[in-house]
Task: structure prediction
Amino acid sequence: MVTLSRWKVVLVILSVVLGLLFALPNALPQSVRDGLPGFMPRQTLNLGLDLQGGSYLLLEVDTDALRSERLTNMVEDVRTTLREEQIAFADLGPVNGGVNVRIVDPGQVDAAARVLRNTIGSTIQGAVGGRDTTVQVLPGQTLRLTFIAEAFEAEAKRAVDQSIEIIRRRIDELGTREPTIQRQGSNRIVVAAAGESDPERLKEVLGKTAKLTFHLVDENADVAAAMAGRVPPGKMLMPGEGGQPPLVVDRRALVTGEMLTDAQPGFDQMKNEPIVSFRFNGLGTRRFGDATIRNVGRRFAIVLDNQYISAPSINEPITGGSGQISGSFTVESANDLALVLRAGALPTRLNVEEQRTVGAELGADAIAAGQISAIGAFVLVLAFMVVAYGFLFGGVSILALLVNGLLIIAAMSITQASLTLPGIAGLILTLAVAVDANVLIYERMREEMRAGRTVIAAIDAGFNRAMLTIFDANITHLGAALIMFSLGAGPVKGFAWTLAIGVFTSVFTAVLITQVILALWLRTTRPKFLPIQ
Result:
């Protein structure tokens, strides 16, 4: 164990050099880091919300709105299906969490039920009838359609997962580094964006559903009657943004924002106003082109989150698959709209349950307190090791401890894991217990020397026989860190991540670096006794 193997020396030197290389950017100002050559690392420790300051939001996915939207879509699907089958119906609409429809002809009730069972909803394995909806025949020639509970629960879960992914893409577009985005409970999402000091803008960007749709305008509809509640079947009253008068539009969308491939802010030189340019994918291009070919001369409404932004006329077929949205945009609002359109639409509305802002001054105070704590812990460990094992062996442990801290900083800079205040606590704990391995090794050496062993035999036994205990202790630490990381919230994750990195670096430095240094000492001095007897 104490032989000075070449691979051990190379590994120690390489780890120290790489540790210095990747930790160095943390000691350099931004101007110097920007001027470093391209092959040099520039990543620094990524400070979390509690250290850097930023915004915290607790969002709730509105599953009630999701259910309402599904019911609205089901009503339109039932209307379209029965019309295609030429089955007369009446009293179609949502009732108590389902959809009811009365079939006018008693002889067509069974045929209508059969058609709806085969067409409405989506296929799902294990469900009765193989679909996520059920169709019941009620008295009075009425059919009732409802979602099965398992299907809606699965859809609500997908909505939360999809919302998390879209939130992450939107925050990435904002330029916020390493945000914390986590599910809380069944339908809540925690967002902690370090460095984002404007929670209102963050709330505006994340909370915007960004459902973009294109609907034909019904020019013959009576808008006043629709505003009084008499909306024609298959139509809907659409309010306008910025005080524009409402319009009656087709409920069915020509094209949806899911078919967008890109959206960029721009500027209309003719009107001297900000705009948003967009482009469809292949399917969207074909659908939009076909719709504009059939409806030249009509208007279509560009609808964003249940408000139309503009309603231009179709002067000629639009087959290029691109267009632009104009309205009462500012430069910032055009940027934000393009951002959320690129990131994708949320499946349903997000409600802000809680918001907090952490100032940068509070983070600076926390960093200063953490530095004092880390220095204090290091001084206490240094004093203990020197008093207990002398300047040589205690100094070797302290040198290994310094390399340990260097490797932790380098590892966190490489992975860009956020360092939080609990993470600083994990770092201090790691430094405090990192010398445990050295204590186990040194105490075993003492026992061997008292038993009459030679210096080389005592050192060899110290490393050999303490190794199993060292591994056992650190494996339990690693297991606890993994459990905290997988089950804990943001601050707990920061503590667990620092602790997990510290487990690997502590074992490496306390065993391998100590062993190489002591092997060099043995080779150069050839001592007759150990200074820790």
